[in-house]
Each structure stands twice: as structure tokens, then as C-alpha cells.
């Protein structure tokens, strides 16, 4: 149920076109009718625009197909955290494009739009899966994405070689594990918002991404904010929000 | 040294107008000449535009005055984490406006600009100092700010009463301690980026803001990112970046 | 040994019907005779009424059958944390009903009683196994249970659609992982006790349920208390206690 | 605004007695008109019945007086975390009863009601302030309270001496710091819900109450749930909810 | 090299029977000659008496056989953390007795001695492997051991039934996971040293034994000390030390 | 109430000398009559022998005097965590000996007994207050104590100079902050039980004693157990238990 | 691109031999041309001298072969964290020496150089894989390495037997899990820098190496610094840096 | 007792110039005779050369004077963590030079030596006290020190301006709080060992230096090791060891 439909319903109540009991009934049933036994998962906040998101982890291929079918007529669908085995099974029932690097599946095609400029920067090659989740999400929502991978701070010249790109972006996602210093260095170079994405890459005292997370939260550069460890989707979605607002 | 000056310097090198040794010398000395014994603190990343930020905590009134005088001719100055005793002392030497609620001092006046729409929402009255730090920072940088205070999730109707404001903002900072649920609920209502600011308000298992921080990092709403505990300035500055980009 | 039997024994001592040595002997041996090599597990505190609980995790099918047989004549039995493989094996020896969603097995049948009103609310589909453990436990003990699943706070309208149910319950269990905000929002809407159940659902900085646990402990809503991460049984059992007391 | 008033308002909308715009206006302004610059603090969820709660910590005496005056005509008021200096100052303006042991202030008098039976048990003498906060809260809401203090598990006979009281209560709050074992032992003896309250009493590896908190969350006794460290009010309020429901 | 041999060597140096260089050489080589490529593991501190300990975890069957053969002529050997597969393989080469419950292997036979009285108490059936490691270790070193299993505090009467045993022991090991309250309750009943052994049994906020560990460290009973999580051997060895000293 | 009195009471019940109701009454009131408004603190487990312990922290001088007077006729009293200001005030009413180094007060005199041999070893001079608490406690209970202070492992020769003392003790308490390695090194040298006492001495990543605590729990030496951070009393009391048992 | 090449490029810019655009182009492309789809991993900081490091974990054999081939003409290659299965596969394409104990692969041969003296000391046999990673890394870079394994502090005499070696080294790596005391004891004996390497060896409260890490950070011996848990490579590389500087 | 004296003593034993008993006696008493009631504190490992270190924190001015007088004839003394009040008091008895910035006192004068090149780099002005502790310590031991303060990574150009200094140092200490990224960036630029010093500067999720500590331990640059939070002395002392070895 869109917000416009909701607004109409309330006006109908006030104008006596529909009585309170019926309105309540409608309100209760509306959002659930199209999904059946399951409702779209936690990424579902993404209601605006003609696109729906399914969080693939912990769902069977069957469940994903069921949810997708109930939605697929009206909108494009993004499926995150999708492994290749499930992807193959879904492809038997639905026209799925699968991007293995970012564990992303798409039904209804990527957006043709390529608005503005988002940079997805990754510290090391091991951070690429999370970075790709962010990059593909941003592309799905119609953004122009520039990937800068393997630009960790221990070889600062590689990052500096891209200074002009960094200074011309609308928003940057800095994806890094280990010591997570990438976000601070980019934050010091850029004029735009920087979304820091800690990854669980590392060993020993990296504690599954906690070291990077803390470093990013404590960044002394202004304009840096942080999403959850390995949350590439969240970074890509937020980057899209900011980039598209800047291009309006 | 602005980016344009930097670009010019490098072109001069390439055109032989200046030799490498001199360029290096200039590069080294330039950013430090105006400050003397101290350099602007960690919020200083904020170089763009005609404004400078001084992080007041751990600096004496004398140090703040010294830094301010070296800067004050050219630009407006924002001083964060400034207690009232220091503020009073600074006022003897410089025309300081002091905002006690947010522990913010301003030299050179607030911006006259009131662009776009930023909402600063706070869960409880104890979160107001952090929220005010964010709100005043955003106003200092020329943004239109709407304050929604005391709208914590345990009385959800108070928040819902502002649904339309929430839906029309360019960016929202959700400031909350204790369980930090405010960010998720607002994230579910809003179409724009939400900057979550955990505060150290609470007791027992709030662990000085850690409970709120973790809740916010795990928000199941899309479009939410997080800054450090009690980092009102960071939220206000980032909100300004996003809001002003959206209004361009 | 029931409390009535205990009281009788003590009176017998005082009246000289039994001497101290014999009483001590009886006291020592009584509670162990019926179980053999093992004694009912940690959920066994549930002695009142004609029902016994076996914590299935870490026990072999054989051990569960052994314990059950020593008990099954006198009372109904609830087996928690029971996987389907063990369930199948037990069914060969005993008339077990198995509820896979909540990993619950029942011998002697569910209660016919459907007293009062307990709501089990779950934030997302991944929280359902824990929610079902709570719901089935409550039903086993003779309570009327209403399930509200997939009502996470990032889409607050779905929860509000059930406001009247929430306001008419005797007790509510709020089951949620990730940021755990569900408990606070429900706590703000309800007039009855709310039992918060953090789940280990999430990734990154959810730390296996710690983020949700802390959020729930810090809930600013009154009337909220918390059980261990993933402890659906504990919530269902406590909800039954409260609901049945309210219906007496 | 009471729930009955709310229901009436919605019906008025549906019957055309009031139009949507006006209703929204009313909804927005109503809950705030009586409080002025501040709104009642986080314990304020306690709206039902004729009583209001003010969380005293971090508020000045003036603020507490201001809030109290706006409320005092209609309802009794409970003020928690109130130190004696502020209490004395408030007493100059308002008829405050002050209970120093539990840092509780009451305006409008304790309840005359003494329903049912709540036990507040405390492990050591240092836990008494938290236990008193719970006990006085419960008495304020009209419950019969039995205090069992200094019954820690290292001298188990003292606790067992009260077995009959424990077995006849409607609900028990077990208040303990250090190793927090009191909740498990009482949980094993009682037939009713046990609310465990960890306190910050202890040193070294008690980590300000974390050791007790974890122990209580892991209690192997059924029917035990936990509130935040030192949250006496929360335990007393929840105990009142359960006790009064049982007595209805 | 025994301490007597060491003393002799030093006297020889002083008497000129051996020169400094030779002494140093001897000192360096002596302790390693009998073991070959490996030296006995970390439990090896147990040099006194005719017994050696091998920590089996992380060693192959071949390594254990190699070490054992170099030692077995002179002394009995205790092998801890030994799984059944390795045990079977070792038995092909050496006369090993294997105790599966406690994952303990013995070469050269248990001690015939049964001195004094050690109680090994365990909270639940899941704690038995750790308890057995402690009990078998104590028996290996010639102590009389009484096992009290499944005496967790949620059914306090079962523990109290053994009050006299508890009061007559020389030393008690209290083995418990979850909330670890067993150590405090036993500590309050006993007159002798209590060695608390937290186990990793539990789920959720038990954090692999941390909850029990903290509870035990904070025990308000006097005479309680703690060993590492799941360290049954350590408890058994220390109990033997104390018991045998008391019986001397 | 002593155990002999308890045994007598139960026999009286069985012989009809006293009826059940009276016995219960006696059981309930007996342990509380001699203390008035307060009961002896958490160290009170120490009931055996003619000595009582009062935990001084968080008690006023008045409270300590009150408790002491109710006890002082019958037994000697040990007061721990007593600062010098309170000590002075108590001395006005009672014949208190005060030992400032260990913050210990004694009423009724130290024991004349000097049984066996306890070593209290401390790593650095900052650990001395905790070490003294242990040493004085042990002396109060009639043990012969040898103090080895400032024998930290960074200068291992100082510790080795005392090898013979270490090898002849009945029990050793190893008191150390920072890295807590002292316990392992002593544990490797000694044949007797070693009680490790982590202290809160240190800075940075010592986390108030946690680093030392963890090191001690993980000691690879056998025969080492651990008490709470800064718990000198606990170590001294336990050492006394072990030493006196060995000397019996 | 070497630093000399970089210096030349900048001089060329200044002398007009190359224009700014071309220089920028060169700067951007140069470091990447030889590697193709991937760039050398995080150990790659090691650019000086004719050697390159590949971090093997998380890379496929194919990727390692690809990177190696692009480098192997010019320099020797060290591959860390390489398991035997991948090693075998790489050996089909490239002349790899494989050292299983330290999970190290080498292409182009070990260094013939054996400069100075590095000691690698390990506490227990389980620490050997990490110690070997350090030792082999140091040998690869041309250092003379002395291995002292199984010299844990619980048998201090074994370590002391090597006092002279310890006193004559240029640098020592102390590798230890569990309580990590080895670093402090060696630090107290040695005159040279000690690099402490915590390992994840241990169980229970060792928390995967955290206990050892904290102990080492808190070492009271001077001259001790710490690398990440299990970071044998880091210790070996740093030891090489220090040893070779001392031998210059 | 110096090592030469020790060697002599052992030779005397071997040559019969001194008998074993006397040697033992000498060994025991020697290191303690010169200090009286106290022995030099934990930094005392620094025995080599003619200098002694006293850790000032937690010692009274009197104690420091006492220790200093017993040493001052023979050697220069470095006193760390010395506040200005104590410094003033000491100056009345001894010729103390006091350096307030680094809280360092020196008796016997700074070294005249200025060997090699050590860089002490600090991220922000708040890190200067720790950096000065390191710098002054290094100067005390006769090293040439270059200070680079306020070169945090959020303004990377300031650090790069010193690239040549960084590349020519023998050893660098990188002192930083907050996100601690400075160590990684310097580690990537330098060819020499980098000692990372986390500081407790920061707020919120910096957790008193833990965020910086973790970031530094996880540095992806080679050649970086870490000392305890705020341990400027440790870094300065270790830097001196490395620098002086390189200059030999």
C-alpha cells in the first residue's frame, strides 16, 4: 500500500465514504495480501520507487521464489546475500541475473539510469565481496558507480593517484577491514559524505570487524558515518539516496 | 591553502615558474604559518567554505583565543564542547556568541542562510545537549533546522504526530540514548538519509552509549548510518553536507 | 516428591511417626528413584502441575526416551530444542507430536485449555523459530496465544494495525533480533507486562544477539523485562505464569 | 490524552463531527499543552491510572517542581532517583514525602491500597537502596510488599527460613549484586514470576553489575526474567502489574 | 632432572669436580634428552611424584605414543582431552585405560590409594564431562572422590540432601555452567576450600562460560577460588594437592 | 546459631521436646537477634572458629561500631576495606588495632598462633595494599606468613633468590597487576597450591585488572587458582584454610 | 615503481621533460600494469629489496600463481598462510619450496645471507606454527635465526638454560598463547628489543589469544612491543628490520 | 649487581674462591641493599648503562626522593609520570630538571649524545603529552629526536610534507588516539620499524584508547608493532634500543 493510497483511505474515512471498522480491516489486510505466508524481509524498508529488496540469507530458494512471484509483476527485485547454489535453483523458475562477486541477484534488470557519481573504495582484495554488494546495489538503483579497489592506506600513493575522482564524487563508500583507516584518509581528502563500511576481513585482534568498526566510528575526519560490519547493501542504498538527492 | 592554490602551485612547477625545491618548501610551510604553536584540532577537516572548527575540549581558553585570533579575520569560527566558564573568558577578548544548551560558541555569527530542511529528533530531554550540538552546527552552516525533542519510542504517538515533517525532510539526525530505537522507527518512516547519534545517556547496561550504538548499527531500516557516541557535531556537519547537496 | 509429601514427612518427624535417620534417608533417595541414571534437565524447575520439561539439546534420543518413559505415565511432557532427526527416532518408541517450527516435541498432547490472552510478537521471519518455541510452550500450558509475526519497527504501521490486540492482552512476548526495538515500541503501546526475547538473528555488530539484548535491557518503556538470548521456552513459560494468574 | 479521548476523537472523525485537519492539529498539540518546556521523562510510559512518574536524575529541582505543578492537580506523582538535597528544595514548594533509602519522592501520598503479595528480596545490605526503590514503587501503586533483606546465598539457611512466604507470593523481585545467584535459588523455590534485578554492588570482576546481570540471564530456574542493572523502579512497576492482575 | 640432581651438580661445581662450561652444557641438555622431538605439554608442571601428564588436544596419536614411550618405564601417565578415536589408536601400541566420560586416558593404572575426601559436584548433566575430568584426575593421584552430579541450585533441596557430605570434605570442586551459582551455595555450606570450575555449557548470554566464570569470581562466600573455563584437570589436580596435604 | 545448636534443635523436634511451629519460629529468629538492624556482611561466611568478618566498604563508622558491639564479647573481629578516617572514629568507642597498609582493622587482637607457612608474594610496590590485606588476614587466623614483595617477573633473579622458601611453603598467594605473570612462574617453581590474586594496578590495556585476571586463569602451571581482582581477604582466608588443614 | 623512479618522474615534471597530464597518467597506471586483475595483498608493504610477499589466505591457487608469475622474474617471493593442498597445486606451475610447519611457501629460494642473530622463542609445542612463520620469514630475508621452542614459564629453568643466547641476540620474538608471560620473562633477561607474538592457543578464558595479547601489552619489562595475534610474519619481518639495521 | 659482577661471582664459586652458601647469600642480598624499604619500580628492567628509571605514579615525593638518593651517586635517573606538584617538592632536595609537557623529571641531566634519528609523530595536539614522554625518554638515552606533531591522517598532506624525514629515520614512534590510523599510513611510507602508541584521547566509542589499540594491532603495513595505551616511555625506550643498535 503506497502512501497515496493511505492518504486516500484516511480522507475516505473523514468524508464518510468508508466507515471506521472497514478502514481498520483494510489497513490490516492490505500490506499482507500479496505475500501469503511470508512478508519481505528486513531490507524491505525500501518501499519507495518501483523496487523491492529480499534479504536472501536464511531463506530457501523456494521461499525466495514465492516472495518474488508475488511481487515480480509490478516491480524490479534485488536479492542480497544470495549464494550461487540458490541462484541456480531460482533461475529455473524466474529470469534472474546473478552477480557472484557481490552475492547479488536481480529480477527485472539493472536500472538503465546512471545518475551522478558514487565511488566505492575498498582497502584490499578480500573486501571486494562487500564492496561489490554496495556497488551493485547502487547500480540497481540507477547510479553511476566508480570502483576503486585495493587502495589500502599502507600504500597511500595508490589512493592519492585518484585524488581528483575523490574530490568530484557526490558520495563515497569506504569499505575496509583490519584497521579500517581508509575511511579517515578518504574523509580527509573528500568534500562529500563518506559512508564507512567495516568488513569482517582480518584475523586475531580484528575480532570479526570490530577493530575496523571502532576505528571508523572514531574517525577524526568530518562527514564520515558508519554502517554495520559487512553491510554492503546498506552502504549502497544510502549512497544512492544521497547521490540521487544531489542530482535532482 | 585552498585546492585552487594547490592546483596553481603544481601547474607552476610543471611550467617551470617555480622549481621543485621551492615548491616543496612552500607546501611544507604554508598550512602552518598562520597558527603558531598549535594547529586547528581534529574537526579541522572542515576546510571547505569560509568556516573553521575548533574542538574545545582539552584546550584552555588562552589556546582557543590564540587559534581564533589567527583565523578570525578571514572566516567564521565554530567552537564545540565549550563550557560556560571558558566561554565567559573568551568573550573578554573576542565577540563570541555562546549557546549553552549545545555547548557551542560562534565567532563571526551564525549563517544567514536557511537552506532545505534538516530534522534533529531527540528521544528524551537528557539527549538535548547532543541534539543541540547537532542542530546549532547545522544552523551555523546555513541550514534550516526543525527540532523534534522528547519523541522517544515508548510513546510512539508523539513521533507519529510529526509524520509529515519526517516525510518531507532532506535528512534527519536521530539522537537517542538507552535502547536507541528511535533511529529504526524514524528510518522506517522516512524517505531520506537518517544519521543515528547514540548518546551516553542511560545507566547500568547502557554502558555509556554502547547499547544505543549497537542498536543503531543493527537497524533493520534502510538508509540509516551511525556516528560516534555523543558526536552531535559530526551529525550536524554531515547533515549539512547532505542537505545542501540536495538543495543545489 | 511433592510439597505436600514433604510437609507430611516433616510432620511425621515431629509426631514421632518416623525417626530422624529414616527421614533423612527418605529425603535423600526420594527425588532420584524414578529417573535412574539421569535426572530431568535444567528446565525441570517446572514441577508444578502435571507436566515435565526436558531440555533436548545435548541429549541423545535414547536419553530422552529413557527419561520420558520414567515420567510419561503420570504427566504430559514438553521437550524443547529437539531437532527433527531425534524426533523421528523418539517417535518409534513413544507417541510424540513434533512441531518443527519451534523445535518442540510433546508427549501426552497439548493442553485443551485456552485461557486468557498471550501475544507472541516477532520482528522478522528469521525470529519465528524462537517465537514458536514461546508460543507452543504457552499453548502446552493451556493458554490462548495470538501470533503477530513480521511486525518489525522499520514498518511501524504493520504493528500499529494490531493496537487493539496489544491493548487487550494479559501479557506479551516481544521476540526480536538485530536492534531489538520491538520490545520498547510494544512496551509503549501495552498496559500489560512485556517479556522481551532477544534472538541471535543478525550479523556483524549484532554479536549473536547482544545488541538486541542490551537494547531490551535499556528499554525506556515501563513493564518490560528480558530473558536470555533465544530463550523462547523461558518467555512462553513465564507468559503462562502471568496469564494464568490474571485469569484465576 | 487518555485512550478513551483518543477513541472518541477517531469516532468523531469518522462521523464527520470533526474534520481531518482539525483532528491532526488536536492530536499534535494535546499531549504537550500541560507540560510547557519539558515533557515527563522516560518512566512516563506509566500513563494508566491516576499516577505519573518523573525520573529525577539529571533534572534540577526547578524542573521537577515545574513538571509536578503541571500535573499535580489531577494525579499522584512518583519521583525516582531523587537525592536529599533536591528533595529538600522541592519540599519548599510542594507537599513532598521523601524516602531516603530508596531515593524516592511522592506527591499526593502513597496508595492506601495493599493488594496481594509482592516479595522484594535483597542479597546484601548494600543492595538495599535498589530494593527500596522497587518496594516503594510497588507500595505507591497499591501493593502489599514484604521485604526480605540480607538473604544472600552464601548463608542459604536464612533464605530457606522464609520458604513459606516465598511459596505464597504472587511475584518476587530478587535484588542482588556480586554473583547474582539469589534469583536462581529463589526461582527454584517459588511458583510465581521472579523479576531479577542485578545491582552494581561489587568490585573487580563484577564490572558494575555485569557479572550479576549475566548470571541472572542464564538462570536455570524457569519463570525468571531480568531488568536493567539497578533498575529498582522497573522491577517494582512490573511487579505491581503482575500482582494486581493476579488479584483482579 | 630432579631437584636433588640439580643440587648435586651445583655442589660439584663449587667443589671443583666439574668446571663451569661442562656444568652449563649439562644443564642445557639434561631435561631434553629423554623426550626427543617433543617435550611434555603444558600440564607438565606436574613433575613431582611418579606421574606425568600429557595434554592430548592438538596432538596426534603418534605424538602421544612417542612421548608416552619415552616416559612410560619410569612413571604412570595421565592423558587429558583425549577423544575416543585417538584412544583406540594408542591402545594398539600401549596398554591404555580409557575413560570416555572425562576424555581421560591412563597408562600404568589408576592409583590404588584412596586418601581423604574430595567432592566433585556438578550442576547439570551437561557439566559431567568436565566434572569427570576433575574426578578421574583426582583418583589418578590417589584421592577418595565422591561425585554429586545434577545438584544445580534451581532445585536447592537436592543439594541440601548432601549437607553432611559437604561439611565433611577436605576440598570440593563445584562444576557448573549457565549462571554458576553452585559455587556460592556450596561455599556457604562448606568449611573447606571450594574450587569453582565454570563450564562452557549454556547458550546466548552465557558466552561460552563467561557468565559462570564471572559469577564464581564474584562469589560472596569465603574460601572459593576459580580455575579456567572447562579446566577439569586443573581442579582435580589442585584438589588432590589440598586433600593430600590435609591427610598427611 | 552454630551447627551443634542446629543439630540439637532438630533432635528436639524429633524427640517431641519442641513442636514444629516453635522450631520454625526459632530457626527464623535465631540468627538475627544478636545483630539488630543489620546483619554481618558478605564475608560473613566465615562463621567457624571464634572470629567474625565485617566488610568495611560502604558502611559508616557507626554501623561498624554497632555490628562490632553486638559481636565483640564472644569473638575477635576482622574489618576489611577500612580507611583511616573511619578507623580513627571507631577507635573512640572500641579497642581497634589498625593496619593502614592493608586497610585492615582488628578487634580482640591478632592470633597468637603462627602455624605452618604461607608465602604472600607481590609483583610490585603498588600491589602491596592487596598483598597486605591477604597477609594480615592470614595472620589474624593464626598462620605464619612470609612476605616476598617486589619480586615481579621482569627481574626474575630476585624471585629465584627465594626458591627454597617457595619450595617449602604450604600455600602461596601470588599478588600481581599488569601482566599477572607472577602466578605462572611461581606455579612452576612450587609444589603447593598457588592462589593468584590479580590487582587493579596498571594503566591502559590492563583494564582495571582484567589483563592480570585473564593471564592468571590461563596459567599453564598446575595447582593455580584465582580469586577476584583485588580480593586480598579472599586469598588470605583461603590460604589459611589450606595451611591449617596441612598442619593439622 | 621504485622510489628512484618516482623521484625521477617528479624531476622530469619540473624540468619540462614530461607534462603534468602525462605524469598523472603514468603515476596512475604504473603500479598496476604488472599485476592484472589483482594486486599483491596486504603484506605487500614489503617493497624494499628484491622480494615480494603474498598473503595466501583467502586466495585460490590460481590467483597466487597469477600474481607470482607477474612478479617472479624480478624478485623472490614469500607466500604466507599457505596450506599444503594449495602448495601442491602451485608446485605444478612454479618451482615452490614449501615449509609445512610454518605454512610458508617460497619462490626463488631462501636467502643465502645469515646476518646477525634473531631468537624465536615459543612457549609450547602448539605455538610452533606461528613461531615457524616468524622464523622462516626472518630466514627468507637473510637473517641468522636461533629457535628456542617449548620454553614456557611454568618450567623456568628450561628458559634460563639459554640465558647467554638471550643476552647475545640482536632481537627476540617471544611467541606464546595462554597467559603470554614468556614475553615479560624474556624481556627481563634480554638487552635487546623483544617482539611479543600472542597466539590463539588455549581454551576457555584465553578468548582466542586475547589473554596473551593483554598480558603482553601490559608487560612490565622495558623494550617489549606487540604484534597481532598469530602474526608470525609480522614479527619475523620486523625482527629482520631490526637485526639487519644492527648489523649494518 | 651488574652482569659482570654476576659472572665474576660464578667464576669465584667455580674456582673455590667463595663457597656455595656465601654465594647464595650474596646473590640474595646484593640487589636489595642499596634501596632500603623500596625497590625501583616496574620500569626498572632498564639496568644496562648508567641510568635508572622510576615510575612516578602512585609514589609520594618522599618515596621518590628516598629511592633517588640511594641511586643518584652512581647514575642518572629518569622519573616518569611525575606531576608538577611532586616535581616542585623533589626539587627542594635534589637537582631535578622537570619537563611538564611529558611529565618527566631528570636527575643528573639529559644525555649529551644525539645519535642517529628517531621520529616521534603525533596525530593531534591532545596526543602531545604521550609523545613528549616518548621524545624526552629517547633524548635522555642519547638519541637525536625529530618531533612531527599534529600530522593526523584526516589532513594527509601535512604528513606527506615530511616524507623525506620519514624515509630517512632509523625508527619512528607513531602516537595517536581516536582511530589510530597514523601508524598504518606511516608504516606504509617508512622503511624502518614503526612503534605504534595508542593514546586514550577520544570519547564515546574510543573506549579510552581501545579503538586506536585495535587499529594499530591490525595495521596492514609491515614493520609495525604496538605498546600499551599511553605508554610513551615504553616507546621511547624501545626506539632508543633500535636506533642505537643501528648506529653502532
Q: Greatest interface and its residue counts?
A: A-B, 38 and 37 residues
The secondary-structure class of chain A comes to alpha/beta
In what order do the strands lie side by side in the largest sheet of chain A? 6-5-7-8-9
What is the strand tally of chain A? Answer: 9
Q: Approximately how much helix is present in the residues of chain A?
A: 40-55%
- Name the helix and strand elements of chain A from N-terminus to C-terminus, one letter apiece: HHEHEHEEEHEHHEHEHEH
Rg over CA atoms of chain A = 20 Å
Alpha plus pi helix count of chain A:
10
Mean pLDDT of chain A: 82
Question: Distance between termini of chain A?
Answer: 26 Å
Oligomer: homooctamer
Give an overview in words.
- The structure is a homooctamer of 248-residue chains.
- Chain A has 248 residues and is α/β, with parallel strands linked by helices.
- Helices cover 41% and strands 19% of the residues of chain A.
- Chain A has ten helices and nine strands.
- In chain A, the strands form two sheets. A five-stranded parallel sheet of chain A has the order 6-5-7-8-9, sandwiched between helices. Chain A has a four-stranded mixed sheet with strand order 1-2-4-3, sandwiched between helices.
- In chain A, helix 3 (61-71) packs across helix 4 (84-91).
- The longest helix of chain A is centred in the last third of the chain and has 16 residues, at 232-247.
- The two termini of chain A are 26 Å apart.
- At the A-B interface, strand 9 and helix 10 of A face strand 9 and helix 10 of B.
